[in-house]
Design a protein that fits this description.
Belongs to the ABC transporter superfamily. Keywords: Amino-acid transport, ATP-binding, Nucleotide-binding, Transport. GO terms for molecular function: ATP binding; ATP hydrolysis activity; branched-chain amino acid transmembrane transporter activity. This is ABC transporter ATP-binding protein. It holds the Pfam family ABC_tran. This protein is of the alpha/beta class. Helices cover 37% and strands 27% of the residues. It is globular. A 6-stranded mixed β-sheet has the order 6-7-8-3-9-10, with helices on both faces. The protein starts with 5 loop residues before the first strand and ends in a 5-residue tail after the last helix. The chain binds adenosine-5'-triphosphate (ATP).
Length: 245
């Protein structure tokens, strides 16, 4: 296994009496795309929040297990330290700063970066190449962008911190099929440039196409995992998550 893998072992988490994750173990190898599937309430967002150490902002807490990036334990770090360690989350529902301009949203993303000014200029060039529309709309308020463009901005903002790993929470949610496809292509491109991606998706068809490996969460537990092509061929996944009867 590559040195900088994200290793999650036996992770449990919840919100007061609600046990949202139970003994979840998962590996994201360096440079890979790994998908996490599951229906509403399965615990997907909780998993990402537990990794990025933002669970307490939602009234939750990790109750057991470990998360480590390249051997460095993340459990116990503050969210900004997790970003500095190379791991960035794009939350569900985009959450761009609506009243700020596109350019200022991107600048905000660079605040967590450890890189110098030259690294930030290079990061900005990279996101403008990936999403030319963000260069065209640099001076516009982010709230005026379309849903798809806001998703692009949310991903681009995370990339400004120069992460080794990106945690993506439902990037295709609420987008028209063409825009969802466009986002999927960008994820492939970002990964090809060397960033590993942990992709949480309800759209299993997209996720299994992008990922090499996938995990299925159900009521907080991993109930299936394996190579994405094997899961895509499994009767249970086809029936429950791909809508094939
Ligand atoms: P969705 O796609 O609907 O976001 P999910 O798979 O991401 O689903 P989670 O949002 O992680 O699932 O929810 C897992 C469980 O934790 C559910 O039972 C949910 O009701 C509960 N939960 C999630 N967020 C909170 C919260 N802030 N406070 C209390 N319970 C929560």
């Amino acid at each position: 296994m590559a040195g900088a893998a994200l290793e999650i072992r036996d992770l449990s988490a919840g919100y007061g009496p609600v046990r949202a994750l139970r003994h979840v173990s998962l590996t994201l190898p360096e440079g890979a795309v790994v998908a996490v599937l599951g229906s509403n309430g399965a615990g997907k967002s909780t998993l990402l929040r537990a990794i990025s150490r933002t669970l307490s902002f939602h009234g939750g807490a990790v109750t057991g297990g470990s998360v480590a990036l390249g051997g460095l334990p993340l459990t116990g770090l503050t969210p900004d330290r997790v970003v500095a360690a190379g791991l960035c989350q794009v939350p569900e529902g985009r959450q761009v700063f609506a009243r700020m301009t596109v350019a200022d949203n991107l600048r905000a993303g660079a605040l967590g970066a450890t890189g110098n000014r030259a690294a930030q200029t290079a990061a900005l060039r990279r996101v403008h190449e990936l999403f030319p529309v963000l260069a065209e709309r640099a001076g516009q308020r982010a709230g005026l962008l379309s849903g798809g463009e806001q998703q692009m901005l949310a991903v681009a903002r995370a990339l400004m911190a120069g992460p080794r790993m990106l945690l993506l929470d439902e990037p295709s949610l609420g987008l028209a099929p063409l825009m969802a496809q466009r986002i999927a292509e960008t994820i492939t491109e970002i990964n090809a440039q060397g960033t590993a991606v942990l992709l949480v998706e309800q759209n299993a068809a997209i996720a299994l196409r992008l990922a090499s490996h996938a995990y299925v969460l159900d009521v907080g537990e991993v109930v299936l995992s394996g190579p994405a092509d094997e899961l895509a061929a499994s009767d249970e996944v086809r029936r429950r998550y791909l809508g094939v009867v």
